[in-house]
Design a protein that fits this description.
The chain is an alpha/beta fold. The chain is built from 13 helices and 11 strands. The chain folds into 2 domains: 37-161 and 250-289, Bacterial extracellular solute-binding protein, family 7 (D-Maltodextrin-Binding Protein, domain 2); 167-248 and 307-372, D-Maltodextrin-Binding Protein, domain 2.
Length: 378
C-alpha cells in the first residue's frame, strides 16, 4: 500500500511555487507594447468658450492616461477647418479627431440632430447618455455615420448638457405669438422647430453670433449655457435671458476619430480613449453645475441681466411644433426610415425610463423653497 503524502506538504509546495512565480511577475517591467501615437484633434469652439475648456479637459485625461504612449494635440475652432466642417475634416484625415456636437453636421442627415437636438420625450440629458450606452444609441450613432453616410469616422458621445436656455432677447417674450417673425439663431433640428413656430432662423457657429447680432442678421439667439454666453459677451448685446426650453433639452458632446486611424491604435490606446470619454462626461457635468450657476449670478448681479423663466405657453407650443417636425421627418423617402428607427428607440427608452424617473424622483422645488423661500416669480 502506497503511503499518501500529507496534505500540508502538497499545499506548501504549491504556495512555494506560487511565491516564486509571483516574484518573477513582479520583477518583470510593466512596459507597454503600444507605439507612441500623437493625434491631431480640433474643437468646434472658440478659444474662450466654456465648451472649449471642457474639450481640453477630455484631452488632458487622455494625455495623462496615455503616459506618453498616446497624446492628443488639441486645436481651437478654425485652426484647420471651420466649426461646421470638423466631420468632413475627420473623414478625410485632415484631422485625426474632433470635439463637437452632432447638430453641426445635421445637413448631411437630419438624424444626426437626434443625438442631442431632437424632440423632447421627457428624458433628461443623463438619460439620453444612458440610452446611448445601454439602450443601443451608440450603435445607431455609428450606423448613421458609417453605414448610412459611408464616412470613415467612429464616434462617441459624452457630457450630459443641462437643458439649454431659450436664449437672449432685446424685448420681452410673453408667449409664442411674440416669437413669430423673429430672426433667431439656433442649430440642428431646433431650426426646424422654430421655423415651424414662425421664426426666421439662421444657423451659425458660436464665434459668429455676436457679429451677426451687431449687423442685424439676427435679433435673438440661443447658444448653450450661462458660462459660454458670459464669456463671449452675450450680455453686451441683450439684457433679457430666458431660461428653459424644449429645443435642446438633452444634448451631448460628440467626440469623433478617423476610423482608419482609430483602428490602427493598439487596444490599450483605444481603451484609453473610450474610458476618457466617459470620465470627461462625468467631470464636464459636475463642472457645468458649478460654473453655470455661478456665472448666472454674475450675469444678474454684475451685468444687469434680467433672467426670466420661459412662459409655459411657449413650452406647449414647442411640443406641438415638435410633433409637426417629427411627422415631416419620418415621411422623407430617403432619410425617414432611419430617422424613425432612432425615434422609435428613443421613445421606447423614454417611456420605460420616464415611468420610473417621474414617479420616483423627489420634489426638488418643494425642498428648495422650504429652505430658501419661493423662487422669484418672473
Amino acid at each position: 500500500m502506497t503511503e499518501k503524502k500529507p496534505a500540508m506538504t502538497t499545499r506548501r509546495k504549491f504556495l512555494a511555487g506560487a511565491a516564486v512565480t509571483g516574484a518573477a511577475t513582479v520583477a518583470m517591467p510593466n512596459v507597454s507594447r503600444a507605439e507612441t501615437v500623437t493625434l491631431k484633434m480640433q474643437g468646434a469652439w472658440g478659444a474662450q468658450d466654456m465648451l472649449n475648456e471642457m474639450a481640453q479637459d477630455f484631452v488632458k485625461i487622455v494625455n495623462e492616461l496615455g503616459e506618453g504612449r498616446l497624446k492628443i494635440d488639441y486645436l481651437n475652432a478654425g485652426a484647420v477647418v471651420k466649426p461646421f466642417s470638423v466631420m468632413d475634416g475627420v473623414h478625410s484625415g485632415v484631422l485625426d479627431g474632433a470635439h463637437s456636437v452632432s447638430a453641426y453636421w445635421y445637413g448631411k442627415h437630419r438624424a444626426a440632430s437626434l443625438f442631442g437636438t431632437g424632440p423632447c420625450y421627457g428624458f433628461t440629458a443623463n438619460q439620453l447618455l444612458s440610452w446611448v450606452y445601454y439602450g443601443g444609441g451608440l450603435e445607431l450613432f455609428n450606423e448613421l455615420i458609417q453605414d448610412v453616410l459611408k464616412l470613415n469616422v467612429v464616434g462617441f458621445l459624452g457630457f450630459a448638457m443641462p437643458a439649454q436656455p431659450l436664449g437672449w432677447f432685446k424685448r420681452e417674450i410673453n408667449g409664442p405669438e411674440d416669437l413669430k417673425g423673429l430672426k433667431y439663431r439656433t442649430v440642428g433640428l431646433a431650426s426646424n422647430l422654430f421655423q415651424a413656430m414662425g421664426l426666421s432662423v439662421a444657423q451659425l457657429p458660436g464665434p459668429e453670433i455676436l457679429p451677426a447680432m451687431d449687423r442685424g442678421v439676427i435679433e435673438a439667439f440661443e447658444f448653450n449655457n450661462p458660462s459660454s454666453d458670459l464669456r463671449f459677451g452675450a450680455q453686451d448685446v441683450a439684457k433679457l435671458y430666458y431660461l428653459g426650453s424644449y429645443h435642446q433639452a438633452a444634448e451631448a458632446f460628440e467626440i469623433l476619430f478617423n476610423k482608419t486611424k482609430f483602428e490602427s491604435l493598439a487596444k490599450e490606446q483605444q481603451a484609453i480613449i473610450k474610458h476618457a470619454v466617459r470620465a470627461a462626461a462625468a467631470d464636464n457635468e459636475w463642472k457645468a453645475w458649478h460654473a453655470y450657476s455661478e456665472d448666472l449670478q454674475k450675469l444678474i448681479n454684475d451685468h444687469g441681466v434680467k433672467v426670466k423663466r420661459t412662459p409655459k405657453s411657449i413650452f406647449e407650443a414647442q411640443l406641438k411644433a415638435w410633433d409637426e417636425v417629427e411627422a415631416e421627418l419620418v415621411k422623407d423617402p430617403q432619410q425617414g426610415p432611419f430617422i424613425k428607427k432612432v425615434l422609435d428607440s428613443q421613445k421606447a427608452w423614454a417611456k420605460r425610463v420616464g415611468f420610473y424617473y417621474l414617479n420616483n424622483d423627489a420634489d426638488w422645488r418643494t425642498a428648495y423653497e422650504h429652505h430658501f423661500g419661493p423662487l422669484e416669480k418672473t
